[in-house]
Specification:
Largest sheet: 8 strands, mixed
Radius of gyration: 21 Å
Strand order of the largest sheet: 3-2-4-1-5-6-7-8
Number of helices: 13
Helix content: 40-55%
Distance between the termini: 10 Å
Structural class: alpha/beta
Order of helices and strands: HHHHHHEHEHEHEHEHEHEEH
Amino acid sequence: MSFLQKLKNKFKQDNQEEVSTKYKEGMEKTRKSFSGRINDLIARYRKVDEDFFEELEEVLISADVGVMTVMDLIDELKFEVQRRNIKDTSEVREVISEKLVDIYYGDDDEEIETINLQEDGLSVVLVVGVNGVGKTTSIGKLAHKLKAEGKTVMLAAGDTFRAGAIEQLEIWGERAGVEVIKQNAGSDPAAVIFDAIKAAKSRNVDVLLCDTAGRLQNKVNLMNELSKVKRVIEREIPGAPHEVLLVLDATTGQNALNQAKTFSESTDVTGIVLTKLDGTAKGGIVLAIRHELNIPVKFVGLGEKAEDLQKFDANAFVYGLFADMLDQPNEE
């Protein structure tokens, strides 16, 4: 049985067919580009040789997998092809799907994708990212998701600088049915977060999601502001924030990777929320972020609706990349 067929069976056994379907539908643009080019490559090359691997490199780099990640992946593929004595290029597709999962997890297990929430007491999640990536929308969707899982949730309107940010968060708060702690526009973000922590504690809230500023006109000021907010959280709740989620727009490709580097230097990012994965043909950025920065992707946006923010699953991601292969009736 092929690796991809095993994945499909795994989703069926775990009653996760809805998840695999969401990835398949949400990754249509990436799959058509990525799988289409790999299929073309396999059709043109009958044997696995150096020229084949060189063109495969180009396909992977064009999908935003990242140069460092591609080099490591190609080395792994060459080793595996030699070990299994693979001669026919059609068999390499299967190895690629396996190695993409391997390279994502590395030495870690699948628990790296789970958001770190406390079993008892308040969990504080700090959400960071530049303006325009879908940060506030992601907070709203995450609040909806956590509430659906039975958690009590509160939002802190810590982005006091961007026009309309507080109002936008309030709209999402109303949709999700959760309280939003705010102050006037231009207020000190750290003071807003301080008030929110006090309110969350007094109301026995399970999860506090904190929005933050995301302007990039002055990177130093922004990072200093985030550090100040983080210090306030640490002072009020030792060990918090329990997660620092960085929101990135998948459609910006390598620019998203650069943003991840900048934020991870200042705020100890623990996970990525990758928005608009359904809107790009270059979904390989998921692998580049994980492999080059060692930060797990925890959530991905696979559509516009609140329930389209999905917990990331590398197996479902790879299934989404190659799902069309399993639908071909001539597979033996």
